[in-house]
Structure formats: structure tokens, C-alpha cells
């Protein structure tokens, strides 16, 4: 790998100087293009998202059988879209945000099985691998219901196979729980940031948890090496997986009817702003990719990262993508936002986002807990701190010079009273009560 000179890069790219000293920054993507142009450059397309959506439909009877809690949605794992007007009033009052239009919360925090956005990509990837194996080995024939895959003889077959993944926590939970449900041996390689309760929960599902004292990248590296030694082991590659990415992207297709139900129009006159917390990039990248396919130029997507671990921002702003890490410019990568504690971004996602993403914001750790308490007090909804990063978007939109310019240059100034703002709540419902209490009482300076 090439040697990165952090000092030289900071001189060439001014925003890196602010990032280096842990300032909260706003970055507007200078390479964003009109959707029709960016779609042409992309290796993936709407057809791939539709293919993923159909696969999840085929698996719905299987999911319903393994996870009875998904029965009311017919085995489709989906979250609700909730208007949060009290929170909107509160941020306008407390932070002077002057946010017009409607603020809504996409509650992936409450997705079945994994309690985070990872229930989309992680579960999809395990199912895709399961379908591949089942077809290859003749477990499924034309017209079979996939429910059959939960039969004892199929489970016995899958017990010969292993699924492994490296994770800061939530991806491991989604892959681990789903893999164990299919029957696989599951091994999750957890980085130092991963919370104890997540390891305990996984072990209670029969998943093997291997712990590392190092960061996420090292956990991934060791996991991959171990998996490569076993021909019957499949490694879920969070940094490069097209399957994970497409699993996340399906969210956009499902959002269409939810917006209709809430009478939220999304078109040239009614812009939609979406704010998503970002770690390695797969989840926010996949969701954004799907949203752009569906809503095209009417949707404006922003990622939010911790000031100590803004890996996607550093990768995109320098154009170096996965060739640069936050450590290269002198940051630690350590953050209270365990789901976002990633030092090096996905190069694949950075490439796809280059012409689609509107921009990025960063947030100091202390504010994660403030926004968490704000939401709990005004709407009685609990999110984990990582997920609360997304609120930095609506709080800052009308206060940042960069974002004010973005609104103006995109011809949106007279449309903001008809805009919708979606905060993508990426996790939280599985956090144990005791840990919630700790979070509620955490104040950082
Ligand atoms: C994983 C995660 C994210 C970000 O997803 P990446 O694919 O790592 O970018 C955001 N929030 C929560 C709660 C997560 O667990």
C-alpha cells in the first residue's frame, strides 16, 4: 500500500485541516451529477435492486417460519416511517435550526431480528448465499416454497458450512443470528469497540465470537484469513460486498408506499433530504443508491460520521477512497459511536457514491447523547448513540454556509417549506435496559 503523507494532503485539501483538529465540518460533494449521468457510470442498476427485492420475497415464508415475530408483515423485514413533529419543534427551539417542511424518522432501529439497519444487508447476504448453496446442491426445485429450507434435512446440510464476518457489533448480530437460524456454524470476529452485551447475545444464539484488541480492519483481516483456510466457509466482506449493498438498497423500494401513506410527496417541487450515519459505508451507501434509483434528483442524501472516525469523508474528499485511513491524518478512530468506529472506508462504496452523494457532516461524540435524550424526551423513541448522528443533518441544514449554498445552487430555496427530511435511525431496539440507563446519563464535554 502506498505511503500517505497526511501533512501534504492537509495542505492540498483545506477541509482535511479542520478534520485533523476534530472540528465538526460540512462537506458538499463537488462531483455529484444529475442522476441520469451518474446512473450511466454505475456498475449496479435498478434491475439489481429489484432482483434483491424479489429474492427477499421468495424467502419470506422461510423467515416467517424461523422468526414468528415477522408474521404480521408476512416475513418481510421492514421498519416504520414515523413523523416526529415534537422533535422538529424541539430542535428548532433548542438549536435554532429553523427547519421547515416535515421531519420523519425511518425506524430501522426497530427492524425485526437484528434491531438495526444491518437486518437489511446482513440478512439479505446470508439468504443469498443460502439460495446459491441450495440451488447448487439440489435442495430446491422449481416451484418449491423456500419454507422447505427450514426442514430438518436442509438444516443438517447447512450445518456442514460456516459463515464468518468481521464486525464492530451490529453486522455481527445480524449475520450471526441469521446464520445460526439457517443452521450454519457462525463465527463473528469482533473489534475492540464491540459492546459486551452484543457478544453475549450472539453467544446465546450459539454463535462463536472471537474477540480482538485491535480495530475493525484487523478483525476483518483475521476473519478473512481464517475463512479462506476452509473451503466450506463463506466470508461476508463488509467492505466490498455487492450483496450487502443491494440488501440495503431494497429499503428505497419499500419507502415509496410508506411515503404515500403519510401523504409525503417527493418530486421536483417537493425535495426529500435524507441523513444517514456512516461507518464503512455499506449501509448508507446501499440505502442512498436505492433512493437515487427511485427518487432520482428529488432526493438529497447526506452521510454523518463522528469527528474521530470520518473515514468516508476523508476518502471521498481526497479522492483516495480506501487508500487512506483516518489514522493517516492523525485521528484515533476511537468514538462512542461504536457502529461508526471505522478507520478506513469501503473503496467500492466511495466509487459508487462519487456522483450520487450530496455531502457529509461530522459530529462530536457528546452530541450523540444530547440528540438521543432530545428524541426520547420529545417522541419517546430510543435510539442507540450511533444512530443519533443523523440528527446533525436537520440541526445544521439551515445554519451551515455550505448547506445554505447547496440549497440555493440546487434551486431549492423556495421549496424548503414543502420539503421532507428523513433521519435514518440505524439502530437501538436491542440495547438492554441497563445500557440505556447508562447512555441516558452520559454527558461528554
Ligand atoms: C453499521 C451501522 C451504521 C453504518 O453502516 P456502515 O455500513 O458501517 O456504514 C450506522 N449505524 C449503526 C447503528 C450501525 O450499526
Automatic annotation (TrEMBL):
Which processes are annotated in GO (biological process)?
D-serine catabolic process; isoleucine biosynthetic process
Q: Which cofactor does it need?
A: pyridoxal 5'-phosphate
The UniProt keyword set, sorted, is: Lyase, Pyridoxal phosphate
Q: Which Pfam families match?
A: PALP
Q: What is its EC number?
A: 4.3.1.18
The Tryptophan synthase beta chain-like PALP domain sits at 96-405
| N6-(pyridoxal phosphate)lysine found at | 118
Its EC top class is: lyase
Task: Work out whether the entry's keyword set contains Protein biosynthesis.
Answer: no
The Gene Ontology terms for molecular function here are: D-serine ammonia-lyase activity; hydro-lyase activity; pyridoxal phosphate binding
Q: Which domain of life is it from?
A: Bacteria
Catalyses which reaction(s): D-serine = pyruvate + NH4(+)
The entry assigns this protein to a family as follows: Belongs to the serine/threonine dehydratase family. DsdA subfamily.
Identify this protein by name.
Probable D-serine dehydratase
Species of the source: Blautia hydrogenotrophica (strain DSM 10507 / JCM 14656 / S5a33)
Give the lineage: Bacteria, Bacillati, Bacillota, Clostridia, Lachnospirales
